[in-house]
Specification:
Blueprint lengths: L1 H17 L2 H10 L13 H8 L1 H26 L3 E4 L2 E4 H18 L12 H11 L1 H18 L2 H23 L3 H17 L1 H9 L15
Antiparallel strand pairs: 1-2
Helix pairs in contact: 1-4, 1-5, 2-3, 2-4, 3-4, 4-5, 4-6, 5-6, 5-9, 6-7, 6-9, 7-8, 8-9
């Protein structure tokens, strides 16, 4: 029964993460295909370059909601289930929430509706983390915003933001007893986001990365 619940939360997380809000919003509000411009990704940054600030804000909120809803579903389905091992209790709810949030990131990045293409997963990662540990998510979001504002590189701010979530969660886990599953989620999620930004990192090193405010150019075929 527990295994079936874990499969259910992972499947739900993946499917809700797969909803291509960036594609749908830009198509509806700007009558454009987000995949044909800029990075070709469906996240808020490319929406900003392609369709403007208002659509980008809407997409940002919707992509955040993917992680939020995935974790909420896990909480609802598992409740307070746990396995007792000696004098320690392993709370399955914490593990299921982390699994659901990671599945949502995977869905956003490799959407079943877009032939397993999508975005980079930053907003969905932060949305899931907000439900797991709000202080870590808020800290990471602040680092992202400050980093992107100062450098004008959203990619650099995003990388700094996700690394910041793990950095702040480490002492919270050690000193405050936060579930280790949340720390693992932050670590795996941060590594995942960094890997998904490998092309941005390459452009940053070459001085060719797009800056905040630059308009998207058509995707080169």
């Amino acid at each position: 029964m527990i295994i079936a619940k874990f499969v259910a939360v992972a499947l739900f997380g993946y499917l809700i993460g797969s909803i291509p809000f960036g594609l749908l919003v830009v198509k509806k509000l700007a009558n454009k295909d987000i995949r044909a411009a800029g990075s070709g990704k469906i996240g808020a940054t490319n929406v900003l370059r392609t369709a403007g600030a208002k659509p980008a804000l809407l997409v940002l909120l919707l992509d955040l909601s993917k992680g939020i809803l995935a974790v909420l579903f896990a909480r609802m389905l598992l409740g307070a289930d746990y396995v007792q091992v000696g004098n320690y209790a392993w709370f399955l709810t914490s593990s299921a929430q982390a699994v659901a949030a990671m599945a949502a990131i995977a869905g956003h990045t490799w959407s079943i509706f877009l032939k397993f293409k999508g975005g980079r997963g930053v907003a969905t990662f932060l949305g899931g983390l907000f439900m797991l540990c709000p202080p870590a998510a808020l800290f990471g979001g602040e680092v992202l915003i400050i980093g992107a504002s100062l450098t004008k590189y959203v990619s650099l701010g995003s990388i700094a933001g996700v690394v910041g979530t793990y950095t702040i969660l480490l002492p919270l886990t050690i000193l405050n007893g936060f579930p280790i599953e949340y720390l693992i989620y932050a670590l795996v999620g941060a590594i995942f986001v960094i890997v998904m930004h490998r092309d941005n990192i390459s452009r940053l090193l070459k001085g060719k990365e797009r800056k905040l405010g630059e308009k998207a150019e058509p995707v080169k075929q």
